[in-house]
## 1
Amino acid sequence: MLEHLSPSSVHTFFQCPHKFYINKIEGIPDRTQYAMTVFGTAMHKALDIYSRVFDIRVSVDVLTETLKDLYGQVTVNTDMTECQLTQMGTIALTEFAMKFGATLVPVETEFPITIKRPNKIDIKTIIDYLDEDKIIDYKLGKSWFNTSNPYDYELNMFTYAYAYKEHFGKWPKLYIIRAKYRQKDRQTIFGDWVVDELNLQEDKAEDYFYFYDTVERAIKDGFFPRTLDKKFCGYCSYKGSTCAQTLPYINKEVQNVL
Ligand code: SF4
């Protein structure tokens, strides 16, 4: 039984319920990642270190080491090399230090938080930057805003805000600090840092639990169809034999109905 859900597991489910099944229920690791996802993971670690020691050299070392480790562990789907990502990250970290310096002093970074849900699967997430009255989320790897996928960034931010309120008894201010990229000579390069303040409608916040409830219902029903949107299959590490051979989990009641 799945012990907890997270915004990213919900994101996987809404891309492809069958991928969610293979990864989260069967426990088969996802060994393929987009370059910008790998970049985002490494930059999160580098920014976490920066906000503790405010030393750009230390954070660049963390970025370099993390990218090296990740390129050794997963297949990275893209034409961007480890070297290009290291260069782009070094520029981004230098610009970050110049723009924000030591003004961002968090109470906590990489703060794990759990939303307990009686008779339901708990939700676990990690807050990038936590202060006395605000949460900052770094958006580095993927497109940070996609209105056709509201469960993506909105679900993330709602989950942080709701968890914060559960923990501290008040709603936080919400900010996104995002890396803005541009294309040059068909290469993705770092452009600038952008700060956005988000307005969370508190009276609607609980509506976002709908997405977690939908995943939970699928788990109870054992219903994990393969996605109809084949663009998600392009870079899926389960494409081919794993996807074809993995039987969707179907529980006994559903089997009886069938
Ligand atoms: S290959 Fe496509 S259908 Fe199969 S698990 Fe991956 S995303 Fe889903």
Note: Strands lie at 4-5, 32-34, 75-77, 108-115, 122-130, 134-139, 173-184, 187-198.
## 2
Amino acid sequence: MTARQDITNAVEGAALGEVAAHFAGPHPIVVEGLVNRFGDHVIHENLSLTVNRGEILGVVGGSGTGKSVLMRSIIGLQIPQAGSIEVLGRSITGDGDEGDVDIRSRWGVLFQGGALFSTLTVAENVEVPLKEFYPEIEDELRHEIARYKVMLSGLPAEAASKYPSELSGGMRKRAGLARALSLDPELLFLDEPTAGLDPIGAAAFDRLTKELQETLGLTVFLITHDLDTLYEICDRVAVIAEKQVIAVGTIPELLATDHPWIQDYFNGPRGRAAQNSQERGRAVKADQAVKADQAVYSDQTGTAASADDASGTMDNPAGGEA
Ligand SMILES: Nc1ncnc2c1ncn2[C@@H]1O[C@H](COP(=O)(O)OP(=O)(O)O)[C@@H](O)[C@H]1O
Ligand SMILES: [Mg+2]
């Protein structure tokens, strides 16, 4: 072997090593035959779903159809009765593989309602996963990473030292997003991120999600019933009904099916409005979203509430924030 080949091999080996650290397969999430039950209440019956790497997958379904339970199963917080779940090539449902602990550092989650710690500042919230997974990182570097994630989420630098109660609903969502991004995840789970936001705030959050997906190369599992979100940023949409994923595809593909729930949902008055709005107004919306982003900066001075809800509980875990 020539010296030149040696060097080439070494470089290729190093490059492969780098790539191997990130999941390079086509399907970062594969769910097969999932069964979830609470007592007699069957939530999922033989549910299967495959997520493509790099896509934003919208997940829709009526209230209580098990969207959040599905997400919790995928991230290992809900142990299913049957079925298999693979995330980033690793089994979530297999028995106690020690290696599974650090797989949690490769995804970020924005739970329904945000679930920030109310007694911690935004920056401290962002630092929680860093402390858990990388205790060896020194304080100053950790603060620096947190500040960077806060800004990446479209919050002004000053927001880092605010408490959740001092922030508007839209800013809390961004703070939750900053925390979800704290460990540079490959996968981002968002559970109804625009619920409770006004349409402009929701459009701005959508745009941010899309930008992050593109620039960071994320795969996004996005539970929503916001039709605008589905039209604007989702590559495909999975529909949960009758305890299963009844269809998955682009919106035109879904519209071509004759399932009554899908037809009602996408072709009902709200679906049509979202479709028209998308056809008419991407530019207008983007412009409004920029204004909403700017408004975030003035927001924090206007709406600051007292910071003394020192309950030590999660901020508004049930969701439905204003
Ligand atoms: N920990 C739990 N114990 C019992 N029932 C639950 C639990 N979590 C969720 N459920 C039930 O499972 C169903 C699906 O819930 P969920 O996934 O939160 O619905 P959604 O699609 O609105 O997110 C609901 O009927 C809910 O009441
Ligand atoms: Mg839910």
Note: The pocket of adenosine-5'-diphosphate (ligand 1) is lined by residues 38, 43, 61, 63-69 (CB under 6 Å).
## 3
Amino acid sequence: MHRVRGVVARSKGAPVSVETILVPDPGPGEALVRVQACGVCHTDLHYREGGIGEEFPYLLGHEAAGIVEAVGPDVSDVAVGDFVILNWRAVCGHCRSCRRGRPWYCFSTFNATQKMTLEDGTPLSPALGIGAFAEKTLVAAGQCTKIDPKAPPTAAGLLGCGVMAGIGAAINTAEVGRGDTVAVFGCGGVGDAAIAGARLAGAKTIIAVDLDERKLDWARSFGATHTVNARNADPVQVIKEITDGNGVDVAIDAVGVPETYRQAFEARDLAGTVVLVGVPRPDMEITLPFIEVFGRGGALKSSWYGDCLPSRDFPMLIELYLQGRLDLDRFVSETIKLDDVEAAFHKMEKGDVLRSVVVL
Ligand SMILES: NC(=O)c1ccc[n+]([C@@H]2O[C@H](COP(=O)([O-])OP(=O)(O)OC[C@H]3O[C@@H](n4cnc5c(N)ncnc54)[C@H](O)[C@@H]3O)[C@@H](O)[C@H]2O)c1
Ligand SMILES: [Zn+2]
Ligand SMILES: [Zn+2]
């Protein structure tokens, strides 16, 4: 049993607090990871707001890299000392999707079996089955993806959630190809990663949409060729103007509200693809003109974790990073301590940061 500090959301909407938590030694199929860096993702804030579930208290943090400190008796695919990125979709290998050769959709992903707890024994719900705003965390061994230790933890950890989700939304879900036109709604960590992904994939036009000028400046630095401030202009109209009246081949909603989804739907060219990677709140509903859903053809897709396969995509993207072809460091606006997560949420809400990364 390990007594460590972790960031806990005790109840809906309440500020998070740093608490002493108890982390069991790894049992069968589990790994104990000493967390080195963990990014603050909007999904952590969704958890704190009660937008994901009501299983408080939550141990937040899920965008992390660290060193494997111990493994359960039967674990052979990761070893003590490995430098790993934690993933929140450990592939099972035998569900109906895995059996059909589509493990990135695995319908039976899994987490550690044992519970981490508060000091009084109250079980914690780890965010996305990870809980990495903590000095140590217990995960399923399959949640650990080994990568090249030459990459710094601050950059590597980002691939554990938001950056992978964004890049994957572009390259895996949308299958952006050379010469495509792409629009990205919402230029936070996820949206900018979608922009970086679209650039890697060879898109010729990448239009960034946000409500905040600073976000649009950053979006340009990741590869946006055009920007639209949706406070001052109708993004659908501007996107059509930029694309000779046609709309884009791929429209990615990295906000996840009905307004941006509708804009993505309308800003798309015939036979184009809409990808939803932002996470809607449970109470939200959308209305779309049904005849247009048919008439415009193409595809309306959602992207879980960028449809990534961690064992395939994490090492590949780290390789691109080490070659200087994918700038992960640019996502890191600031490095902070565990005690600063609540303040980081406020900075995120105000749009002051792309990613605050807790360094341990
Ligand atoms: N699908 C996945 O697997 C996955 C993984 C990680 C995060 N997410 C989700 O992706 C979303 C974005 O996460 P993030 O960390 O980048 O958040 P963020 O808060 O850093 O970024 C959101 C951006 O959207 C902009 N925005 C808000 N309303 C807008 C509007 N109406 N029009 C245009 N822009 C608008 C904001 O100004 C901000 O720049 C969240 O919903 C998060 O939960 C999904
Ligand atoms: Zn499976
Ligand atoms: Zn996340």
Note: Residues 83 and 149 are 6 Å apart (CA to CA).
## 4
Amino acid sequence: MNDKGLKLGMGFSKRVVLTLAVLLCLYIIFYFFCYPNIKYKPWWSVSKIALFKAETSTPARDRFTPAARTPAVASPGTTRSQTLHKASTAGSRKTTKAPRPRGTTEFSYIGDRYATDDVPSQTSCANSTRKRVKGTTFKERFLEHVPVLQWHKHGSPEEYKRLRQYPGAHGWGSVDYETLMNTLSILNTSANRLMFDDWERRANGSSCIRCAVVGNGGILNGSKKGREIDRHDYVFRTNGAVINGFEEDVGSRTTMYTFSANTLRNSIASYGAVGYKGPPLSEETRYVFLPDHDRDYILLKAAATHTPIKKGPESSKIPPRYFGDNVTLEKFKMYHPDFIRYIRNRFLRSNIMKTEYRNIYRPSTGAVMLLAALHTCDQVSAYGFMTPDYSKYSDHYYDKRHRGVTFYANHDLHLELYLWQQLHKEGLIRLYMR
Ligand SMILES: *[C@@H]1O[C@H](CO)[C@@H](O)[C@H](O)[C@H]1NC(C)=O
Ligand SMILES: *[C@@H]1O[C@H](CO)[C@@H](O)[C@H](O)[C@H]1NC(C)=O
Ligand SMILES: *[C@@H]1O[C@H](CO)[C@@H](O)[C@H](O)[C@H]1NC(C)=O
Ligand SMILES: *[C@@H]1O[C@H](CO)[C@@H](O)[C@H](O)[C@H]1NC(C)=O
Ligand SMILES: *[C@@H]1O[C@H](CO)[C@@H](O)[C@H](O)[C@H]1NC(C)=O
């Protein structure tokens, strides 16, 4: 080989290395940019590492800082560079070798075992979801007797021991025993136990409970579905559900309003300008807490007993007024953490759970609401949920200007979209599509 040939050879291999490096960088950027779309693991992610901290103080949130280039924003307190650093070391050997905190095995993280409630069916509906599910592909996953709501009966030292290993909305790991019991002990009326506490009064000869579950999706803009929605026995809504001025498209009634202390504050902050003033206030409205953190237990207790909150983000000298001055204890309900964990494990087991973001992942508030309806109503019609053509619509029906759907690392909206399609195809829900 002459000199020239050698030079050419070196130049060539340099170029190969450079090209490979660029391709690798593009792959990494592509992966983080399009994360929720990707249903396979990248080669550097290690599934079995225990990235999970038993005592996390970060509640799962519905609204993070929008995930500009990296949907992987761990918490509002985490800076972008920290996040990127964490992401880049996610699969490194160092992490793999890190000692596994006690009690954080794959099994105790998932915890696919739940309490059983023998709440008798509230109706004798011949054509109910619970009956129809047996003839579908969901029959194995669907547990008819999983508790949907938690109340007085569920609080005990044994149950606390079982559920404290799951943080956030999936257990009682984020709430101390005293705070928990202070709240559960007041949830002791039949209205706190039953989703449809006024059904007997309301039934009027009907044998099936028909529910409209209304998400906030932009597909509802111009839908003219308001009257159809209001004709159902119960109307479910969540978070920034603005009604004023949108009645023709979304209806005007709200029977079940689902939220968490955190999403409520975020909704007031984010959608105040489009007319969201707080939870709907009507005689028929019930408030169903999705407890992410001890803040939810504290807020429920204070609101139901009309006492001020002494510390935390909701603290105030006067009792919380989100739910009206005269709200009664009978109007409050709270989802059972077993129910949230059950739907995460069996209906929305996202690949995010294989990453270091698994501690902040939970089904979205809308998903919890829709699956709760599926487990309690006889017939479910869903409106304003993600559909395959979501990019044609704005994020919310009440947006002033078109804005695309934002994907956050703490939810898996693509997986939810896919689940709604499956449930619709199998006749378990009727999903509004255009
Ligand atoms: C049962 O209810 C579903 C959903 O509402 C409906 O599509 C179906 O036609 C009903 N079947 C019968 C036999 O009434
Ligand atoms: C809750 O209700 C049950 C049954 O009505 C009753 O036995 C129990 O004493 C009540 N507990 C509290 C704390 O009020
Ligand atoms: C009860 O049903 C009857 C007959 O379908 C109807 O005329 C009446 O308006 C209903 N009442 C209520 C309170 O919905
Ligand atoms: C709340 O109750 C008080 C006292 O009974 C009454 O004066 C007030 O009108 C009620 N407020 C609402 C919004 O119902
Ligand atoms: C809602 O629908 C109207 C009529 O089709 C349209 O002009 C408007 O831009 C839509 N709003 C958003 C936020 O997309």
Note: Confidence is low (pLDDT under 50) at residues 1-10, 33-103.
